[in-house]
Design a protein that fits this description.
The complex is a heterodimer of chains A (660) and B (113). Chain A is mostly helical and 660 residues long. Helices cover 59% and strands 5% of the residues of chain A. The two termini of chain A are 26 Å apart. Chain B is mostly helical and 113 residues long. In chain B, helix 1 runs antiparallel to helix 3 and helix 1 packs antiparallel against helix 5. The radius of gyration of chain B is 14 Å and the shape is elongated. Classes of the chains: A mainly alpha (660), B mainly alpha (113). At the A-B interface, helix 21 and helix 22 of A face helix 1 and helix 4 of B.
Chain lengths: 660, 113
């Protein structure tokens, strides 16, 4: 486009769309692809711990669980048992050792226990508390996280010792500061940042299960999955009560973390980069809608085998058909970064912090010191079951176990029925732990309108649904989004084939910019998928007891991704596409077969055990892998059209470079 | 139970999009071989839009308003993609899809009864 000449709106928008989409397009593809997988990050983490695959969730041996807790943590201030859910069939045990912060309010306690701040972590935490200073802005960021705060201190501290130089320093530093914020809030100081942290923590801090909470330390530094190898957390087979030792894995949390803060750099930098990319995405979507001439007329239109026309159709179809999803996911992505991108809004609206709710959660229950036996839990669970009917029980927490003033708290699963209420609206029931008398529960107040709107977006973005159907729909829409970005990137090259050929005739080589985009396209699209496939393979081929194997999984991911860049550079455009697409197709389609060979369940085994999340993983991997094969085949069989009007230079036919 | 609602939403959405595509000039030619009169196409358009809006009801009933709208949009996207692919590769089979979807609507309604 010439800027020195008058131009129309559509022309300008078209320019904007092209370049805003291209500049960060590969990053956006990576964000879309890993983010789409993150809808199933619990399932992915579970898949990556084949030791847990045979857990039988149909019966729960609660007595055995209590015995283990009494044996492992007789002096704990609270015990928590996380019940099997459709997204995690194991039984999780965790506890809080005395002297650890006893978070007040059931929600907080349960969360804390589940997060399992480790014993090694305590020194780091103490020092962090003493060192109360932290820069502004960090608070807004800490506020975002809520949940991983404590975990982070645990992970960071432990890692620093264990891991030496591997970027641990800055991370520990950050987590220490954040922990400081958490502490000041805990001490009840009406401090802006701390209080904000609490508020936000309630709103979005809780993750569906332990795996979610461990993400911070885990994914960035690697770290194990929900396998109980960090902090006091034990995973049991619900039916037998046998202890399951899941391997250390970066799991789905690595992909999840990567999709919004990348890897290997300061977390704030990663978030800023992703935030800016999201903004570009938003610009590209809006300008794309303006550029697109006939949204309704071309709604169902796809004209295959017509070169550029077909690519445009595919790009339009993948964009328009799930346009509401693209808009919502991009906008809510920005909302999730809101406090970081626009920190002043929060600070000016709440100069002294939103501390009301923070204070509300401060009623700790001190133990009496007298011993008393625990009430029989089965009738209490029956009451909860009856009260909640369809939603079932998420977890059970015993505060001051074995004490006369013990309390039993039973909570619903996190994923709620309504997006409006946010995830902190999982209801709970409280009982006296000795007599079994029901106790009053202070339920969270209903969200304000602004909170409700924010909740809806955030819950949608995070796929927080009780039912798997909407999550699968989001997953499909996410694939649509990845296709939208990919087709757009490929189209940039296709639209410029003519210029490229002209340039090749004149100077004998592809223009630099064009070649750059070609290489980035192959490595950014096919290469990323190859790296994701390799990541899952690494999970199974790296010895299960190797120290820091989670880091090796991540290293394999980046090694393969880097190698795909070199490969794309060395091979010609079309060959590179074929080889990498086929490679990714093979790696991903073979996962259901790799699983039983390396300790997991075969597809038939999963079906007969009713392990729904493994069935879903296997079928999705098979389907995605085969689609990639199909794409590779399509590229291989592609013959570029020769226009009758302009004869193509002969060598173009010999070495066709245009892909399709 | 919930499955019946999911299927009902899907059937209604497919039905609606089939009808909508039959109301569009390009696709009507693909499906019928010739262009139907414009009054007929207008009727298809009305039927299509009504079916799409109706699909929102079971979604909200089964999932509540917030999740329901999300599910509705998601299923619309899936079924629109399906109809677009059929129109590309098997335009004639749209008649069949239309009937199947209608049967699906009736069946799932009975199931839910």
């Amino acid at each position: 486009m010439r800027f020195d000449q008058p131009r129309g709106l559509r022309q300008s928008m078209s320019w904007l769309h092209t370049w805003s989409g291209l500049v960060l397009g590969w990053l956006l593809f990576a964000i879309f692809a890993t983010g789409t997988l993150s809808f199933f990050r619990n399932e992915i983490t579970f898949w990556m711990q084949p030791e847990l695959h045979r857990a039988d969730k149909n019966r729960i041996d609660l007595d055995r669980a209590l015995q283990i807790l009494a044996w492992e943590a007789p002096n704990a201030t609270q015990w928590s048992i996380t019940f099997p859910s459709p997204r995690n069939p194991t039984l999780g045990l965790s506890w809080q050792a005395p002297g650890q912060n006893q978070g007040a309010g059931g929600r907080d306690q349960q969360e804390g226990a589940r997060e399992g701040a480790s014993r090694e972590a305590r020194p780091a935490r103490e020092s962090a508390g003493g060192n109360g200073e932290r820069p502004r802005g960090e608070g807004g960021f800490a506020a975002r996280e809520g949940r991983p705060v404590r975990e982070n201190a645990g992970g960071g501290g432990e890692r620093a010792g264990r891991e030496g130089g591997f970027a641990a320093r800055s991370r520990e530093d950050g987590s220490a500061r954040r922990e400081g914020a958490a502490r000041s809030e805990r001490a009840g100081r009406p401090e802006g940042e701390g209080a904000a942290q609490q508020n936000d923590g309630r709103q979005q801090g809780e993750a569906p299960n332990a795996a979610g909470g461990q993400q911070q330390a885990r994914a960035q530094g690697g770290g194990g999955g929900g396998g109980g190898n960090r902090g006091p957390r034990i995973v049991l087979d619900p039916a037998t009560g046998a202890q399951l030792k899941g391997r250390e894995t970066a799991g789905g949390n690595f992909l999840y973390r990567f999709h919004f803060e990348l890897y290997g750099m300061d977390r704030m930098w990663g978030r800023w980069i992703v935030g800016i990319a999201t903004m570009f995405m938003f610009v590209a979507i809006i300008s794309g809608v303006i550029v697109h001439r006939n949204i309704f007329k071309d709604f169902f239109t796809f004209r295959p085998a017509k070169g550029k026309r077909s690519w445009l159709d595919a790009h339009n179809a993948s964009s328009v058909l799930s346009l509401p999803f693209h808009i919502v996911i991009t906008f809510s992505g920005l909302l999730l970064f809101g406090n970081m991108l626009l920190p002043t809004a929060m600070q000016s609206a709440y100069p002294d912090g939103m501390n009301m709710r923070a204070r509300m959660a401060q009623e700790a229950t001190p133990p009496s010191g007298e011993r008393a036996p625990l009430v029989d839990l089965v009738p209490l669970l029956a009451i909860a079951d009856e009260t909640w009917q369809s939603r079932g029980i998420g977890s059970l927490t015993i505060i001051n176990p074995g004490d006369r003033k013990s309390i039993v708290e039973i909570r619903q699963p996190m994923a709620g029925g309504s997006l409006v209420s946010g995830r902190n609206m999982a209801e709970s029931l409280r009982f006296d732990g000795v007599t079994g008398e029901p106790l009053a529960v202070t339920q969270a107040p209903p969200p304000t309108t602004v909170q409700a709107i924010s909740n809806v977006f955030i819950m949608l973005h995070r796929g927080f649904f009780a039912s798997p159907v909407p999550r699968w729909l989001l997953f499909l829409a996410g694939i649509g989004g990845a296709l939208m970005v990919a087709t757009g990137l490929v189209m940039w090259c296709i639209a410029r084939t003519k210029e490229k050929e002209k340039h090749r005739v004149e100077s004998g080589r592809t223009p630099f910019g064009h070649r750059l985009v070609e290489v980035c396209n192959v490595a950014g699209i096919a290469g990323l998928l190859l790296a994701i496939g390799a990541y899952f393979w690494a999970n199974r081929l790296i010895p299960a007891d190797l120290l820091q194997r989670n880091l090796w999984e991540i290293r394999v991911f980046f090694l393969i991704w880097g190698a795909s860049g070199v490969h794309a550079l060395l091979r010609d455009y079309k060959r590179a596409w074929i080889e990498q697409l086929a490679g990714a197709g093979f790696l991903i389609a073979a996962l259901p077969f790799l699983n039983p060979l390396t300790g997991g369940l075969s597809l038939f085994g999963s079906i007969s055990l009713g392990q729904g999340l493994l069935i879903g993983f296997d079928l999705a991997a098979l389907l995605i892998g085969l689609s990639l094969f199909y794409a590779a085949r399509k590229v291989r069989l592609h013959v570029p059209r020769v226009r009758a009007t302009q004869a193509a230079p002969p060598f173009v036919n010999l070495q066709p470079e245009e892909s399709a | 139970m919930s499955l019946a609602f999911d299927l009902l939403i899907l059937a209604l959405a497919l039905f609606g999009f089939c009808a909508l595509s039959a109301s569009m000039e390009r696709h009507a030619k693909q499906v019928f071989g010739k262009l139907p009169p414009s009054e007929a196409r207008k009727r298809y358009a009305i039927v299509g839009w009504v079916a799409l809006v109706l699909a929102l009801l079971p979604a909200i009933h089964a999932y509540g308003p917030s999740t329901g709208i999300a599910v509705w949009v998601g299923i619309l996207a899936v079924s629109a993609t399906g109809v677009a692919l059929l129109l590309t590769y098997r335009p004639r089979s749209l008649h069949f899809t239309f009937s199947i979807a209608l049967a699906g609507v009736l069946l799932t309604t009975l199931m839910g009864w």
